[in-house]
Structures
1.
Amino acid sequence: MDKPLKTPPPYPIASVDHALRAAAMLQMEGGATVSQIAERLGVARSTAHRILAMLVYRDFAMQDEDRVYRAGPVLELAAHSQSSVSRLRARGVPHLHRVVDLLEETSNLVVRTGDTARFIASVECRQALRVGSREGMVFPAHRTTAGLLLLADLSDEELDEVYAPGRYRDRPADRPDLARLRTELKRLRRNGFAVNRERSERGLVAVGVPVRGQDGTALAGLSVSLPSVRYDARSLRPLVATLDAAAHALEQDLAEQD
């Protein structure tokens, strides 16, 4: 059985978590103001300002003349990822909010890089028992709902390249069973959606659908995560229909922007 995706540390340090989340935002989205960071982290502007000042001091961030904070030298990847990830997130977040309003469960937008899946946006529901935000977090793609959907979009040759044995020389246990994975991906392609019933984390169920570009390529995965005690298999069809509608609306927004 797979181990849980990620277990929170026994003694979490909120200030460190805030700084790491802020750095991830700058890296993935290209820039943000103090007010935007404060809103996203749920902290006061003064706290956000101190966090950003420390990131600037350590070269994780830099401030433009227009007072917008951007990724610093340590996070140069932002220059490469800004155009696609920032656009996806900006267009996707309103649709995630609508999914939460309709389903009353946490919604996510996920992209794939190699064999990893990155949560670029997450909107929590308001229920007392809920799945928390994973925005900015990275997990093995084959162990997440959206990651599986994005892997299902690859050809056999592309999948072989992603999971080439040489990439796992130092960590062979992290490489999935490709024969088993291919069988699962074939089923996902046929169904058009993915369901993760406590496979990656005890007590959690996730359902997702792909978000496609104009050429039909899967750009991201749109998913909803909920406690397993609230999941009813009889509600799967309307749940997938809601996600499909949100994904198609996002696809239309992206197409109109292009």
2.
Amino acid sequence: MTTVLEKIARQLVSRTSFSAIAIERAEDAIVDTIGCMIAGMNDSTPRSVAAAFRDEIIDGGVSLVFTGGRASRSIASLINGTAAHCLDFDDNFHPARAHASAVLVPALLSVATSSDEFSGHMLVRAYLAGLEAQASVGFGVIPSHYNHGWHGTSTIGCIGAAASVAVLLGLNEAQIANAMSLATSMASGPKGQFGTSAKPFHAGIAARNAVDAALLAETGLGGRLDILERPQGFLDLFGGNEATGWADLSWDEKHIIETRGLVTKLHPCCASTHRAIDAALDLQREYGFSIDDIEHIDTKVGRSASDNLAYPDPSDEMQARFSMQYCLAVALLNGGLSLRDFTPQAAIRPSLRVHMSKITMSSYSAEEERGVERLPHQVHISLKDGRRISTQRLHTNGSVESPLTDDQKLAKFEDCLRWAGLHDRRIPYAEFRTKFGQDSIKAITDTIFPG
């Protein structure tokens, strides 16, 4: 009998062409993630990871490290994955409940920057394969796996990214399946780490494990190919009480990036806050009130979102990214959020606490969520003049239902460059993106880091 991993590997090998929209969205995701890695390269978390492995960052290293220098493919993916996720500005992927690109792109770049043989076209194809692999693994365990407390970025993300690296390396169907099997043994990461530097490190771990699993599979190492579905396998141990398994797994003619897409973040904080932020800003634009005009705000979110947002009174910038009270107050005060809102000093502003105290958060019950993939996040605002206004959002800005404009994508990329101190480098966004169809990945990254 064909195992789930074998079915997934066969699907990845058989899908040899992609639509123009799939390629465009993949290129956007890759550039967006590179922007996030650039913005994160000076953050203390990836810097700590780089310092821990400083003896392995050497002149003769093969792969680009965004914090500086070159290292082995394994160490580069570890550091770069941490940098991609450390500011929580990277995209989300609902079918895997994961930050898909923060694992896929660093893992792929660690291989692609090691040699001139890897083209932008090859990178995009491997990225799309990895995204489909993540969705396929997630099919059998999401949302139960995530709600049970596993960080899909570091579990499902790792397994899917191993497939993507295997595809980039040109491995065959059996080797791709074995890469995913080995990655399953490496998958880890509890959501209880949210709000600490261990959370972005999860993305780094997943990227490194994906690279290592693919390289090991290339040399002939393998594991059980039924490890997802067998007793004491992934479903049994990681699935959660409501996981359905893969009996009904199938694939559309269209790629998952076309039908479900990614959520490109407009706000540099936990995605669990985004629908409430966008809903509140919708109301603010419609009714023209300021944060000083607000008496109270009630929000209602999904259970997993409520679990993620565990810091009503954050003490640092990491916790602030996982605080509905902080993120919503800043958004209504400034009309939005930016990277400068998440510094140690900004996170503990006494003047903001009076507004944060106005905000409460509740969640849907298990019964309300049963059998429903997504419920809208609600915002109810009581104004001091006696008005009570409400709205809700099922989809956030940046989703396929409400995509970012080209101007918003450009503004985000430039914000990332400014945050990294590279605003004078004048990296042309449009030109950078078009290079994926023309140059090797080494040539593309040399555009950012010449010499």
3.
Amino acid sequence: MRILVVRTSALGDTVLATPVFRALRARWPEAEIHFVTSGAFAPLFEGLPDLHRVWRWEPKERHAGLRGLSRFAAEVRAAGPFAFGIDLQNKARTSAFLSLVRPARRLAFVKRSGLVEVARSLAGDDPVLDRGPAAALYLEALAPLELPAVDLRPSIVVPPAAAAAADRLLAGADGAPIAALAPGARWALKRWAPERFAEVGDALAAKGARLVLAGGPGDLRELEGVRAALRTMPIGDTAGLDVAGLAAVLARSAVLVTGDSAPSHLAQAVGTPVVAVFGPTSARRWGPLAGAGTALSLPLACSPCSNHGKRGCPLGHHACLVDLPADPVAAVALAALRADREAGGDAAAAAARRELVPLAARAARGARELRP
């Protein structure tokens, strides 16, 4: 039996879909599981033990337009037939692709239904999904397949070339533990101030860590903002690496301090403790899993207010991140740094529970000022 799974964007969402492979393999140990994803992401999944083949979808290049889509679908169809086609993207293009591949049965990840809900989603105004981790929501959509419960931790592969590139970038660490700072996020509403990241970085450097700035070409402004605010010079940044190189750098880091962004999910997949700063989006859905780290946020009644951070703050103050200080984040990151990588996630979570009391008091003191 052959099963085709499709998820092409975004990077973090795609990484979080990998427990689906694990569940499918547990349900059908002899099945061939094929995965269609972005060509840029494919190296992260090629070599995963649960996958038979990874197909590189390049809609802006060789698969551009209807002709390119048809050609790609014909190529994949020739590797079939497929008993199941599982669309974890559920966009018009992926739906059309699966129609052309013609699996015997199709399932799709449906987050919302009806024209009103779809329109609200496009405007960034859809109801917040906050009932569980993203991986669990994917598996929930596949309930008709009666898949067994599996570990929800994401998994990726770090290719040797990416590992070598990371070694070159981090050579200046001279054996010191590496703390990665990832200030970027696709949507501005999810970004914590670069100056706050710099405060955390300097606190980690004061305890012997060497700093690396983590992000891609789209994060250059945030990376430079952190670099300018730091008192400690970082050993480099990952903006010149591909996504596999970024993952390799995170795999060599003792802790990652980040917002709600793709590096958080990559770090979980390579076993690096994560300290994630959350505000408008759901930490329950997008935050680190138990044992992988922790999410820190101000306990405000208005948060979470957005699924992805597309729109601005509905109340106009953005207090969830503007009012979140650096000190508690630094304390949690230091707890992870002092522990080894295996215990760092639990150490960070324990420290976060201690820091939650003053954070809650801070939020309560500011409640009158934060009312719309």
4.
Amino acid sequence: MNDIPYITKDVPSYRGKILAVVTSTDSLGTSGKGTGYELTELARAYYVFKANGFDVDIASPLGGKPPVVLDDDDMGLFDYAFLNDSIAQSKINNSLLLKDVKPKTYEAVYFVGGKGAMFDFPNNTFIQTLILDLHKDNKVIGAVCHGPAAFVNVTLKDGESFLKNKQVSGFTNKEELLLIPKARSIFPFLLQDKLIDQGAVFNEGLMYLEKISHDNNLITGQNPWSVWILAETMIKQLGYTPKPRTITTEENAVKVLYSYETKGNENSRALIKQITEENKQSISRALLIDHSAISILQGNIGKFYDLLRLAAYAKDIESNK
């Protein structure tokens, strides 16, 4: 952590506290598969909040040490920093019991994703109280990936759904079913369907690429690749300009992938050249290759080869810098 200037240098004076909420569920129903909160979705937001002057508490439905999902393919600098940060580890290994949380202590709440959230967020009365109290006090509420499951079954005093007419993003049906074809029988519901059923205006972005919805104090993200912009949008909504940060190689890869999907192959190649030669930054070739593998699951062989060629092109340009 001491090697990351963004975290340790020029940190603003104390601006208040943000609560991060993680799941306590360690299994996907009766499927026999393990689950938990997603480390990347906690760690990256945690350090954005810290770097911008906020202290961060971590809570879970059962308190104590919650189950975690570590995805080696997605682990980056901030994720490893979190694992080696004694203060962060003490907070996550001794997470606060949700029923003991005092909402007025916090300027914002952030619901971390992870498939376990689909099981223990929707019917948790302490989560519902937390959301209602922060909403009443005009505080900022954020959630990413499966985190918006926290909003399911939250009812305002007038009897209306908290989600009614709100712009929301979250893990989509397409994203869920591509990786878990039996998701409809494993989960109590599909998140996109449930959010829409409860009145949300669901904003669906491209599969496995950055997408957030910003509806006044409610800020939600579609998937793990949305965490950076979501956390920084929360900082803006709290009234501050986010501290400058070096864009990660994964974020650059997401930009290339978005360019490929929306503008085509040649534009994405031009963007690779701009990022590497003009901006002097790197691109995560591993993420490009991961998306090429996803295209196989989608049955898109042409896209598979295109993305492999883009990864090779990025390698060639970086090698010649």
